[in-house]
Amino acid sequence: MVSQQQFPHVSSGGTVYYGFPNHDASAENTYIYQQQPFAADPSNTLPSLQRAPQPQAVTLNDLVQALSVSKKDPLPEWKLAQYDASSHSWISAKLVKCLNLSGSDLDLTVNGNNTTTVVKTKQVQMKVSSNFDGFEYIFGLTAFVKDELKVGTDTVNIPALQSKYPYLAPIKPIVYSYADVDLIIGQDSFHAIRPEEYFKSEADPNTSPVAVRVPIGWVLSGPMPTSTGFLSSCFKCNTDDTELGCQIKRWYEIESYGAYKQVDSRSAEDKMAAKILDSSTVHDGSRYTVGMLWAEESIMLPDNYYSSLVQLKSLEKRLAKDPHLRDQYSKTIEDDLSKGYVIQVPPHNFSNRSICEWYLPHHPVVNPNKPGKVRRVLNGASKFHGTSLNKSLLVGPDLLQNLVFVLLRFRQHHFAVSADIEGMFLQVGVLPEDQSSLRFLWLEDPTADVVVHQYTRHIFGARDSPTCANYALQRTAIDNQAMFPDAASAVLEKFYMDDYLDSFEDPDVAFKMSQELITLLALGGFKLTKFISNVTKINKELNPPQSAPQQETFLRARVKTSLETQVAFVFGKARVTPMKALSIPKLELQAALLATRLKEDVLKALTIPVSNTFMWTDSTTVLQWFNSGSKQPMFVANRIGEILESTTVYQRFHVLSGDNPADTGTRRISAESLKTSSWVSGPSLL
Length: 686
Hints:
By secondary structure, the protein is of the alpha+beta class.
């Protein structure tokens, strides 16, 4: 028997209570209560304490728990619940409004009771922490919004249950109703509600309630009572359609570059990832080590060892059919071992595995354009029991430079230089506590035992690797800016991922900058290689002899005299008309707005001085709107206002339609004809 005094958290107060569940499509909740310490009756002794050997040992049908959702001001009382039958988390519109949360609109497919419903909702993110004394558990929660969470109408009387079952003392004695639930925690946040230990009745273990300790506090579990206030249901949310929608949205954001004004819209996930990057990154004397961007602070991955073993056997069958491919593939592993990218670790131990241990499937990829070269690809998206490594990671904030800006700067001057960072991801270390998530199995000898390898560097295939590698590259520049100010600026402005693109007016300056970049990046563990330039000295001296490229890769002509005017194409953009019909004048106004935004971006990207800018339109109606002092319709007024912010009357002119090169982009034209059109050469009036 274990006395209550042996568990100080039992009598220190808290707010955890259990209700017998039954939820509808939006099932999952939890409430916040102001906690008052309560004293358990010391005369009551607790039955045997039993630790759950597996998460399935105790089924939490439903849970109501005191939690805090991050906000500076004091919160009113909210109720939260956990529902096993819901695959995702939900939040009421009332709580979203109170917390001032925002999210993007989406259509979500909800499956349940042999029915499929499309629900219009939003997806919001928040931080949640336990208010239960002694349970300092904080985690990020992503939830879908619903007007009302119709969980049920029943009331649960915890004091009455505790009078009958004294071992329920750790649970706060309170009476609550399911009608007040505003947040539902689903199985997508199982790490916060997984059973760790429990108290149960030894006399009647099958039908009596159970006090269960989970990471966020003590909860009440047990068989569901017969009640008219609940509807038995089980629901699953299909988020694949929302992920596809996000991918399409990202594609359109690229396609519609310049058509919309850009704003800073960092999500809660990006801010969380940025915090991990700032707090975990260290320099070990030769390179940077960056922590993996886990989506939750306490991650627990299922044991996929045997699943990975099956995939290894499938790979073995493929390689057995091609001995030459097997030899090449085996050599890639040997090379990574010799370079320290990979280490061999002890065999898999089920009883002593790390909670974030994960085995990555892998396979060879051959590029027909690069005969003889085999690349080993690890599949971070491979799922096991509904989860994957990539699903447990954040993508992180977008640290890439604007590609348009990089290309514009690259085209500025006569002498061009490009280079590449060798194996960029593999030059950035992984924290030792994260490395067990990057394991893979290999069988060098079919007659020997399976060997477990583990990456010590970030891999190509994990969704957080681009952000981690880019962050390490930028930290290299920032931390050494005092010694190499020009090279550090080039790293921050002239790199797109691992590719360096720059141009110079002087070939000597180009060579010196290239040398400085090699030295600077080496301080961060990066190796800059594969230089290509129309500066002969760079090709000869900065490239290994076997990989020196042909000279004069970039050829450009320029008349170096101030007496002759030179016209060069810088940037062009064409868009299709929207599905919703607009009048011709409004479309012409849209074109003028697009030109204004592109002009601002070009001026921001270029490093050469620009003394003045001028803009032309073939629409007399748009020019009249510019010069009109009368009130305009909202559509016109908003766009005219933005254009007038960055242009003056002395910069806006009229051009005849026949001389307007922008018209070329709206008509059918062959690629060959486009080369000699005014779209490229510019109008004759220039």
